[in-house]
Amino acid sequence: MGKDLCRLVYRSESRIDHNDDAGLDRIFRTSLKNNLRDRITGALALPDGKFVQVVEGARRDVEALMVRVRADDRHFNVAVLGDWPVTARLFEGWAMARPDPEPLSNQAFRIVTEDGSGVQVTGILLGMTRAPATAWL
After folding, report:
1. CA-CA 20 to 30 A from 133: which of 30, 43, 44, 109?
2. Alpha-carbon span 130 to 127, nearest angstrom
3. What whole-number distance in Å separates Cα of residue 89 and Cα of residue 20?
4. pLDDT at residue 58, as a whole number
5. pTM, two decimal places
């Protein structure tokens, strides 16, 4: 990969009800389409009314994505938990993994939704993505 490859992790508060399956499905499908177009990989989960996303790609593509994310009124309080250069993707082949946060332990759930660092959240979402019971788009 190019030398400008980066990984960014953010968390935000959702304005979409967690029971609005159709609305959430539209978000995942749009994210999948846009990420394929922009060569971005990663995972997006919605635990406890929060969006938690890991994105990987060329710096310019990730920055353009974050401009769109910050302008999207379906969520608020966007907080970047980590942003660093990388030499390889962890979510290679996943334009948008959609892990299910249901089986998380209380500690892992707290790390993802409240107080974890970008590295901690990335590790948990990656582990969920590789788990056999994970649901993907």
Report:
1. 30
2. 5
3. 31
4. 96
5. 0.84
